[in-house]
Amino acid sequence: MESKKKILIVDDDIDVITIIETILKREGYEVHYALNKKEGLEKLKSIKPNLAILDVMMTTKFEGFELAEEIQTNPDFKEIPILMQSSIDILMTSKSSIQEMAREYRKDPNFKDLQVLLLKNLSD
């Protein structure tokens, strides 16, 4: 019998976790979660997920990117695919748009290899 694929969600918003978890469990995934980077690292070690879904902004505005960098540079985790997600409604930046904020992160040498995608809100 094939075991379920494990997904780790790291987000500080329990409502977001609950929604994503409900959808993924319905699709047959084993879902685990952590509320911050520290808990996320502990769960990475204990469950060895097949995918990590990381919120961008948690305790700090870069926390999700920092965790992604740790995953990519740790030999035990570097093969784990990462999906970055964030809620534009709560995203705060001095930039006038989410695209500008993503470009800012892409230019930061600390996050250069994270390949931040530029997304457009289609409701605009």
Describe this protein's structure.
With 124 residues, the chain is an alpha/beta fold. Helix content is 36%, strand content 15%. The protein is built from four helices and four strands; from the N terminus they run E-H-E-H-E-H-E-H. It has helices at 14-26, 37-47, 63-73, 98-107; strands at 6-10, 30-34, 51-55, 82-85. Helix 3 (63-73) links the parallel strand 3 (51-55) and strand 4. The chain starts with 5 loop residues before the first strand and ends in a 17-residue tail after the last helix. The model is unreliable at 88-92 and 116-124 (pLDDT under 50).
Largest sheet, strands/sense/barrel: 4 strands, parallel
Order of the strands making up the biggest sheet: 2-1-3-4
Low-confidence runs: 88-92, 116-124
Shape: globular
Helix proportion? 25-40%
Number of helices: 4
N-C termini distance: 47 Å
Helix and strand pattern: EHEHEHEH
The counted number of beta strands is 4
Overall radius of gyration: 15 Å
Class based on secondary structure composition and strand pairing: alpha/beta
Average predicted confidence as pLDDT: 79
